[in-house]
Amino acid sequence: MQKDINTINRYLSFADVCRLFSNHCIPMSAPFSQNDPFEFSIILDDDDSLYEAVIKLSEESKHGITCYSETATNLLLWAHYADKHKGVVLGFDANHSFFENLKRVKYVDRMEQHGSSNFDIILQKSDNWIYEKEWRQFWEAPNDYYDDLVKLPGDNREHLSLKKIPMETITELIYGIRYWDNEFLRKMSIN
User: Fold this and answer.
1) What's the pTM value of the predicted model, to 2 decimals?
2) What contacts 24+ positions apart, CB below 8 Å, involve 108-116?
3) In the chain, where the domains are located
4) Structure letter (DSSP) for residue 38
5) Coil/strand/helix, residue 14
6) Which of 35, 71, 143, 186 is the most exposed place for a label (fewest CB within 10 A)?
7) Residue 186: is it exposed, middle or buried by C-beta count within 10 angstroms (0-12/13-18/19+)?
8) What percent of the chain clears pLDDT 70, i.e. is strictly above it?
9) How far is the C-alpha of 171 from the C-alpha of 59, rounded, in Å?
10) pLDDT grade, residue 189 (50/70/90)?
């Protein structure tokens, strides 16, 4: 499927970059663990069938969302998702078949209660987040999920769901301005 974008970007912490290159996996999050606590509130309040669809996406941690951005240069995204500029931004070929289920987030000033599909509603966010220029993938593939494959200093997540990704989709790697300040890299240079 041809999209109106050729490259999408993923902001990653140093630990997530290590996971990617050691296991060929990117992190996923559960639908209800997104930054905006109000993101799915309309679903919870109004529509039982839509609520059940979202619950199905996140039950038993076997369903997840991977998020990307159109931009690789947003300072807020670097601070929030790339460990305060200690991580990286990876560019991906958005036209690769791996991204056939990639969907653009719709930013709205008022959350809509109805759409042509459940995903129309799940893909909407408050326009307060418009600077993210976000795209999402939804996954339902239990065989691609792993837990704690790589544990690095400073990585405080106990459990993590990961999705296998073809490495040929990567088109660029941009180091954060504080990349070399990572605790793990400092320990390696001392030894």
Assistant:
1) 0.75
2) 111/38, 111/41, 111/42, 112/42, 113/42, 113/46, 113/47
3) 7-190
4) T
5) helix
6) 143
7) exposed
8) 60
9) 33
10) low
